[in-house]
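hi! just following up on the protien thing from before. the input was this:
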Amino acid sequence: MTIRSEATPAFSFHTREQNIQRLESEEFDFLIVGGGITGAGVAWDASSRGYKVALVEKDDFAQGTSSRSSKLIHGGLRYLENYEFGLVFEALTERTYLMENCPHLVRPLPFYMPVYEDSPHSSYLLSAGMWFYDLLSTFRAPALHQKISRGTTLRMIPGMKKDGLVCSFKYYDASMWDDALTIDVLSKAQQLGACVVSRTKALKPTYDSDKKITSMTVQTENYGKSGSKSINVKFKKLIVCAGVWTDEVGKSLAADDWKPWLAPSRGTHIVFSLDRFPIPGAVTMQIEDGRIAFAIPRPDYGPGITIVGTTDGPAPANPDKVEDDQADIAADQTYLLTLLSKYFPDLKLTDKDVINHYIGIRPLVRPDRGHSGEGAKNLQKVSREHTIDHGPGDSVIVAGGKYTTFRKMAEQIVDFATHGTERREPQTHDTLFPPALPAAIQRAREVARGKGWSVPEKLIERYGAAALEIYQIDLDSCDQSIQSPDGFPMLEAQFRYAVRHQMVMKVEDFIRRRQPLYLCRQDHGASWYPLLEKALADELTK
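and the predicted 3d structure came back as:
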């Protein structure tokens, strides 16, 4: 197994340059196409088993669905209705793992489920479900569920609808930084030897005499010394984790023989300032057709926001065009505001209160999914949440998935890809980011006190002990006379750290997917772009 040494380079712009050279010169056990959470998880799992892994992503990591979720880690309380106890137990186990090993990105979050006289489930049935949820978590939630009286509910949750309210239930799941978690998983994979490259598109496969795909032409974007180039990457097995671009990649593999896998669904979230929509935890809202939506407070995002979503509508044929249809966006916003007016009538939230929105596409798998052509097999349904099967040229195709269980899903994918060989055990039980663990943070606080540094708590919450490096960057490289935006202390230093350790290639990568500057402000933080562009130019020349 490949173990990281002190010489292992940081997950940076310069790492990408080195990895492009590796793509040209080495042969890999696996080439993974797709740098969302699924591809990242597979890269981590396979590398931990000692396989030689390459991963290419056509844009920035987590640019698709993996940065546009509801940003929740949860067991799936609703699955209890369908008696999917195994699925819930697995998700709750993974929730515990993530809260313990990624405390800087996955944090306990209280949920409130109001019960009204016309609610589809009685308080007695919900109470039984809550106890079973606690049991399946083996009582490892931050706290057991509670039944809360009508009066207490109204005091705790400002603006909630009073008429018909019977009580509410409080229970725990978790919030997450979905995009940043993907970056940490990829960085971990690199530490174990994976060759990870962003902004490199898979174009054309090469088949050998046995009609297996053994190499892939990829095209890198023009950055740094390597420039833009076409590379033929050699490997033993192709694994496609392209999310909503699965059919696009599939067509490049099989051309006219490809039959669509996906029936994608558009999900819109709208964003308010936490001051305008203050809630103590996530609130579950029942929709008439049986689905649910959430109002989710994120005090850890910048100055604090509340996210509301999601919708469920048809997605455009081209996932890259999801933000183009302004009529659809307006309709989704109206739909969510109407739902909020039902549950929070006293707040009188309107379009003017919405500071931002974001849209994700769920890569849902079609009931008639499949592909034809030589070597194709019937699809195998591995779980309710995702599908894995053989694709053209003995490739492996993955679609769907649940963020909470990405680690277990990756294990299944690698097992599937290596079926028929001696199984190597995955080693993905350790922490993703050691600086975030309590002992490391305690040592960092002692160091900061010794130096007389006043490190912002916001930095420690997000980066753990690595906040000290950001503070040092601020002292050494940044103009400290420039005031950072509210909720984003030492913004330029955070940005420089992200270039050095999170493979940021553009300002957009940082403001959208390493820190939520774009999401938390109506102006998307535009006045700080020139500062960050200048810092990027400086970092890329070092």
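Residues 326-343 form the longest helix (18 residues).
The longest strand covers residues 165-176.
cheers
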